[in-house]
Amino acid sequence: EQDERDRLKREQDERDRLKREQEERDRLKREQDERDKLKREQDERDKLKREQDERDKLKREQEERDRLKREQDERDRLKREQDERDKLKREQDERDRLKREQEER
Fold first, then answer.
1. Which is nearest to 73 in space by CA: 83, 84, 65, 63?
2. CA-atom Rg of the chain in angstroms
């Protein structure tokens, strides 16, 4: 009878030990799953940040191109205006010259 109780106690102890080991494995798995989840979330945030940084960079580059284009357009406009003034001045100078020549004759 004592032997039977001892045997039952050992079996129960073994079941308890196995149960504790399984609970420990389950706990470790939950912790690892949580770490994995947090890592995936951080990876996603990092990816979104990189994408946003790239969009921001492209936007800055486009704004710089736009600014340079506006500046070039303005230089071109000023040059056309100056060219037009120069042309009008040459025409006026030519008229003046012709007028002087006419008066000299």
1. 65
2. 45
Residue 63 has pLDDT above 90, yes or no: yes
Its pTM stands at: 0.58
Collapsing DSSP to helix, strand or coil, 15 comes out as helix
Q: What is the dihedral of CA 47, 50, 48, 30, to 10 degrees?
A: 30
Distances 33 to 20, 36, 38 between C-alpha atoms, Å: 20, 5, 9
Find tokens 């100056």 and name the residue: 82
Residue 60: how many CB atoms within 10 A of its CB? Answer: 10
Query: Six-digit token pair at 96?
Result: 């003046």
Q: How far apart are CA 53 and CA 59, in angstroms?
A: 10
Checking if the pLDDT of 105 tops 90, the result is no
